[in-house]
Amino acid sequence: MEYIKLMFFSMVPVIELRGAIPLGIAMDLHPVYLYLFCLLVSTIVAVPIVLVFRQVIDYLRHRKYFNKIVRWIDNKIDGRAKKLKSASIIGLILFVGVPLPTTGSWSAAALASIFKMRIKDALMGIFIGNAMAGIIVSGLALHII
């Protein structure tokens, strides 16, 4: 039952995988199972975020007050699209992989939506980044690092 509670913690935007793993280790849960469960849930939660955020951006694009902001973001991204496409997966991996505040799955999914990344590429980048962050956080929580 504790694993299920921690799976929900790893879906919460502020806590995510970075907070759920140390909490689970403090609860004396098996570190490997804890890592795998939190990694899986933290990555899966990115799918609806990418899809919903794209719809929100499209909705705001057609609104009077937000149209200028969305157009400005689109112009900035379209101007650098070739550079961003080649480095976007690696950038997403590094963004999520370094366990700092506000650099988790939710933020990465929003960035992937803004950069108009394919869902497959976004999920791969978020998964690998979460795996890296989970290993770092687990190592720190277990006093290995």
Structure, described:
The structure is a single chain. This protein is mainly alpha-helical and 145 residues long. It has one domain (2-141). The protein is built from eight helices and no strands.
Which descriptors would you attach to this protein?
77% helix, elongated, mainly alpha, 145 residues
Write the element-wise H/E pattern from the N-terminal end onward.
HHHHHHHH
Which bin fits the share of residues in helices? over 70%
Shape: elongated
Number of helices: 8
Radius of gyration: 17 Å
Main beta sheet, described? Answer: none
Domain count: the total is: 1
Distance between the termini: 29 Å
How is the quaternary structure best described?
Answer: single chain
Mean pLDDT: 86
Number of strands: 0
Structural class: mainly alpha
Q: Which regions are unreliable across 5 or more consecutive residues at pLDDT < 50?
A: none
Q: How much strand content do the residues show?
A: under 5%
Write the layout of secondary structure elements.
Elements: H1 2-9, H2 16-26, H3 31-44, H4 46-61, H5 67-79, H6 81-97, H7 105-114, H8 119-141
How would you summarize this macromolecular structure in one to three sentences?
With 145 residues, the protein is mostly helical.
